[in-house]
TrEMBL record:
Lineage of the species this protein comes from: Bacteria, Pseudomonadati, Pseudomonadota, Alphaproteobacteria, Acetobacterales
Similarity section: Belongs to the LysR transcriptional regulatory family.
Protein name: LysR substrate-binding domain-containing protein
Residue intervals of the LysR substrate-binding domain: 42-198
PANTHER family: HTH-TYPE TRANSCRIPTIONAL ACTIVATOR TTDR-RELATED, HTH-TYPE TRANSCRIPTIONAL REGULATOR
Highest taxon listed in the record's lineage: Bacteria
Organism: Gluconacetobacter tumulicola
Length: 209
């Protein structure tokens, strides 16, 4: 049996990727359990960010960045911001942490040496990254989204990159296995399939081998 739970630790893009790849994988290989957090005898975790799990076997999958985006319809009625400070006059769409309900309204840009953080007051907020995505597509406001989640919509023109000269927070995707498990051939095969799939998609960067 395969587990894939909704969590702030996994994006809509990765959830869709696993829903696509797992059935194909399991027609050829032994099934295994996958989720966003260790527990319940899971064999593999795929998540954003490096957790404090020193005994886990860690594989870096890919990196992406957060960007500002909005629909053409929204921008037709609201002049695009010229600076981050202009966001105060816009309808912003914010994520909330699913467990604590903490509002994620501090949006960071730049690198460690030239970092700028703006605090926005959202018009709408949700614990679901998919809901934020849908709101942005329907013209409800400006969202701070992962590039990998919105790459296809930017390419098709459904969304517009706002303040494209600014680079948002960098995010790493990792796969983790319990140390007790050791190497399992079917998990290794799935990770190769997942990494190959990510490389076929836009919105990611990769570390040098």
């Amino acid at each position: 049996r395969t587990w894939s739970r909704t969590s702030s630790g996994i994006t809509g893009f990765l959830r869709r990727a696993m829903m696509l790849l797992l059935p194909q994988h399991h027609t050829k290989h032994t099934k295994f359990r996958i989720g966003p957090e260790f527990g319940d005898c899971l064999d593999l975790i795929v998540r954003l960010g490096m957790p404090d799990m020193p005994t886990a076997i860690v594989t870096h999958l890919a990196s992406t960045t957060r960007i500002l985006c909005a629909s053409p319809g929204y921008l037709a009625h609201h002049p695009a911001p010229a600076t981050l400070q202009d966001l105060a006059a816009h309808d912003c769409l914010c994520l909330r942490r699913s467990k604590s309900m903490t509002l994620v309204n501090r949006w960071a840009f730049g690198d460690e040496e030239n970092r700028e953080v703006v605090t926005v007051q959202p018009r709408l907020s949700s614990t679901s990254c998919e809901v934020i995505h849908d709101w942005a597509l329907s013209g409800q406001g400006i969202a701070y989204k992962l590039m990998c989640d919105v790459h296809d919509d930017l390419k098709s023109g459904k969304l517009v990159h706002v303040l494209p000269e600014l680079s948002g927070e960098g995010i790493d995707f990792y796969a983790l296995r319990p140390h007790r498990q050791g190497a399992r051939a079917n998990v290794d095969v799935f990770l190769r399939e997942l990494r190959a799939y990510l490389r076929r998609c836009g919105g990611f960067s990769y570390r040098a081998a």
